[in-house]
Amino acid sequence: MKKISLAFFFVAALLLGNTAFAQLEVGKGSKFLNAGIGLGGWGGIGYAGGIGLGASFEVGVADNITVGAIGAYRGYSGYGAYYSIGGRGSYHFNEILKISEDKLDVYAGLGLIYSGWSWNESFAGFRGSYGGVGLGGHVGARYFFKPNLGAFAEAGFGVAPLQVGLSFKF
C-alpha cells in the first residue's frame, strides 16, 4: 500500500509539472478530486475503526459552491467490509474569511450517504449485511503546492473522522 501511494504521488507530480499559480477560484465549472485514506473511528452506521480508502469529486455550480459524490471502502480481512457512497455539497470560505493565500482552499459541507457493513465470519458460520442512509458532514482544507496538485485534510462524520490525501484541480 505504501509503495502504491508513493508511486501515485510521484507520477501525479511529474504529469502536472511546474507552472505559475493563478488565484485559486472556486466557481461554476471548477472541478476537484480528493483521493486518500480515512483514519479511525466511525462510519455512517456505527463503529468501523481502521484505515479505509476514499475519494470525493466535486464540481462548481456557483461562486464558492460545489456539489458532487463521495465513496469509501474499508475491508476487514476474512470478516467483511464497510462501505459508503453518497452525494455532498461544500461551501468554500476563502472569500468570506478574506484568505488571500492563492494556494489554500477552506471549505465545509453536508452530504447524504448510504453506508453499509457486510460480514462473513466463516469460523462461526455467520453472514449478513446491514445498511442505511445517514447525514454526513465535513470541514476541510486543501493546499495546492502545484497549480493542479495539492494535499487535503478533512474532519467529519459519515465516512471517517479524519481523511487525508491528494487533491487534484481540473
Q: Please name the CATH architecture.
A: Beta Barrel
Globular, elongated, flat, extended or rod-shaped: what is the shape? elongated
CATH top-level class: Mainly Beta
Tell me the radius of gyration. Answer: 17 Å
Mean pLDDT: 81
What low-confidence regions span 5 or more consecutive residues with pLDDT below 50?
3-22
- The N- and C-terminal alpha carbons lie at a distance of 26 Å
**Largest β sheet strand count, sense and barrel closure:** 8 strands, antiparallel, barrel
Sequence of secondary-structure elements: HEEEEEEEEEE
Give the number of domains: 1
How many strands appear in the DSSP assignment?
A: 10
CATH fold-level assignment: Porin
Can you give the helix content as a percent range? under 10%
**What structural category arises from helix and sheet content?**
mainly beta
- Taken as a percent bin, the fraction of beta residues is over 45%
Q: What's the tally of helices?
A: 1
Strand order of the largest sheet: 1-4-5-6-7-8-9-10
Question: Which features would summarize this protein structure in a list?
Answer:
170 residues; mainly beta; eight-stranded antiparallel barrel; two-stranded antiparallel sheet; 1 helix; 10 strands; 9% helix
